[in-house]
Design a protein that fits this description.
By secondary structure, this protein is mainly alpha-helical. Helix content is 59%, strand content 1%. It contains 17 helices and 2 strands. Strands 1-2 form a two-stranded antiparallel ribbon. Strand 1 and strand 2 form a beta hairpin. Helix 5 packs parallel to helix 7. The longest helix has 26 residues. The chain is elongated and about 70 Å long. The two termini are 50 Å apart. About 15% of the residues have low confidence.
Length: 315
């Protein structure tokens, strides 16, 4: 978490950016709009490296960034022409992220530089509403910083899909977002199809999907591993009572392992056979979705065009 000294430094920077100069004769801070405008205009011509309205290299060094890190951060802010860089930095520091983590976030997703101060705070607050508490929230942002530039509407739509169409509990949705935040960018139709494929075709229930971190895999990867086992007689879809004639491996066992382990311990095959099979599955899948995409259109029309459609079991 942010140290006490760092918090005090943040308060000083926020005070400098938000209010006018000290009126020494009266011993208080002037909030007069004309005084504020005069104070801001007096710094507009300053060099970016000098203290002023913009967050400069010296300020970044005071935050705890090394000289190299501060230079890179400052250069990135100038290239993006982000007008709210100080507020973005404040929000990330208040979250408890250290300078090294913040630099990695900016390297992974330079679009964060261009966010507005209000936008980044709204997105952080929305993630908290999704159940991502301290610790999980920081890990998600560090691992997948694009979560801060995705529209709130998009995040809420994915959450709604997982709850209403896939019948995950609120806690299970939180676990999915924590372990597989990339799901927020996935095509909604394919996301639902992936769930229904595992549910109907493989006979897997929601709790096992979450435990196996199934949403980290693409639909193609899931189908390849499942169908290859099935074609070799090593996996069987349960009947209506959940019974099978063979003992299926658990989803976690054959998904959360390397390809080598999967082939030697579960598929009992060589890599060449598996790769040829995967190419056939991928080609089949693309043909399916190319036809469906023409009918469904964009994700923005998902509610109207796809919310009532179901999994086509005959596929």
């Amino acid at each position: 978490m942010v140290t006490h000294a760092c918090r005090r430094q943040i308060v000083r920077w926020m005070w400098r950016w938000s209010v006018g100069p000290m009126d020494a004769s009266r011993g208080h801070m002037s909030f007069c709009s004309t005084r504020l405008e005069h104070h801001q205009s007096s710094h507009t011509s300053q060099d970016p490296q000098q203290p002023g309205a913009q967050l400069n290299v010296r300020s970044l060094r005071e935050m705890g960034f090394s000289e190299t890190q501060a230079d890179e951060m400052h250069e990135g802010a100038l290239k993006s022409r982000g007008k709210h860089f100080p507020l973005i930095m404040t929000a990330l520091l208040v979250l408890g992220l250290n300078p090294a983590s913040i630099l990695k976030i900016m390297q992974k997703c330079p679009d964060v530089y261009s966010l507005k101060g209000a936008e980044i705070q709204q997105r952080i607050d929305n993630l908290r509403k999704m159940g991502l508490v301290e610790g999980s929230l920081q890990r998600v942002i560090s691992h997948y910083p694009k979560v801060m530039v995705l529209p709130i509407k998009r995040v809420n739509m994915v959450s709604r899909l997982l709850k209403e169409k896939c019948h995950f509990t609120t806690q299970q949705v939180t676990d999915i977002l924590r372990d597989s935040p990339e799901v927020l960018e996935e095509d909604l139709a394919r996301l639902e199809y992936k769930f229904q494929y595992a549910y109907f075709r493989m006979g897997v229930r929601q709790a096992e999907m979450v435990k196996a971190k199934m949403f980290r895999l693409t639909l193609s990867e899931l189908r390849c591993r499942h169908c290859f086992l099935e074609r070799r007689g090593l996996y069987q879809t349960p009947d209506k009572k959940g019974q099978t004639l063979i003992l299926n491996p658990s989803l976690k066992d054959f998904l959360c392992v390397s390809e080598e382990t999967y082939l030697t311990q579960f598929a009992l095959a060589n890599a060449e056979e598996f790769h040829v099979f995967c190419k056939l599955i991928e080609r089949e899948q693309e043909e399916e979705f190319s036809n469906e995409d023409q009918e469904l259109g964009d994700d923005d029309d998902y509610d109207e065009k796809h919310w009532k459609t179901g999994y086509k079991r005959d596929k």
